[in-house]
Design goal:
Largest sheet: 13 strands, antiparallel
Strand content: over 45%
Structural class: mainly beta
Number of helices: 1
Number of strands: 20
Distance between the termini: 27 Å
Radius of gyration: 19 Å
Helix content: under 10%
């Protein structure tokens, strides 16, 4: 890993790729509240970490074409939305995911004739989660099979996986996140089911798993279907997490 630009990034929400309509990501943050627990014997403030949260705020160009930003954002629904940010379309790249409430869809018309929209998403129940992409951005699986996996380091504190399903020509595929303890290149070795996503149609989902997450990770899709376009990321749990998976 190294210093990088903000070029070639991707932003997905609710099974829609609105990357081409997002002009800027104004905030992708995971703030924490702190509690003041300063004793009378102290000369400086003592603090302990409290509740975590998350925010994704961004600005978009207005686009009312099918499946673009207006269709994805206009409802400002009371229901949860699932959003994921991919640093790039490179396999294993840094990514962030969040289940959130959409708070705003504010439209501004500039004096130059431009129309933009500002949007704020705030985390609901779980904080924003940073992880890595298990697919190389958006990928198309034309039929049942497995992707090339990523190989990192195994962990023992579970994790949270996010899937975005953008389109599906036909059928009802089942998307399975598998792990492997002995793969060296993401294609060899023995693989087993880590978790199975419930979503089988266009949309998005977050799902958690506890315990060991082995070093190799890949997506295996089963069933009879054609042309499923998906993107998947995983956040590995850490021993320092305030709340385990």
């Amino acid at each position: 890993m190294a210093k990088k630009t903000g070029l070639g990034q991707n932003f997905y929400i609710g099974g829609k790729d609105i990357s081409g309509d997002v002009s800027s990501l104004d905030s992708v943050s995971s703030p924490k509240e702190v509690l003041d627990v300063t004793g009378i014997d102290k000369s400086a403030i003592e603090r302990i970490a409290a509740r975590g949260s998350g925010e994704m705020s961004f600005t978009t160009f207005f686009n009312d074409a099918a499946n673009q930003q207006h269709a994805a954002l206009k409802a400002v629904s009371r229901a949860d939305v699932v959003a994921t940010f991919f640093q790039s379309s490179t396999l294993g790249e840094v990514a962030a995911g969040m289940v959130a409430k959409q708070m705003t869809y504010d439209t501004t018309r500039g004096t130059d004739g431009s129309i933009t929209n500002s949007v704020q998403l705030l985390a609901n129940s779980n904080a924003l989660e940073w992880g890595n992409s298990v697919t190389a951005g958006k990928i198309t699986q034309s039929s049942a099979g497995s992707t090339t996996g990523i190989v990192t380091s195994s962990s023992s504190a579970g994790g949270a996986a996010y899937i975005q399903i953008f389109s599906l020509s036909s059928g009802t595929p089942t998307f399975v996140l598998q792990d492997s303890s002995d793969t060296t290149n993401g294609t060899d070795g023995s693989w087993a089911t880590l978790l199975t996503f419930a979503t089988q149609a266009v949309g998005a989902e977050r799902k958690t798993v506890s315990g060991t997450v082995n070093k190799g990770l890949r997506i295996t899709t089963t069933g009879t279907f054609s042309n499923a376009v998906i993107a998947v990321m995983l956040r590995r749990g850490e021993s320092v997490d305030a709340e385990g998976y």
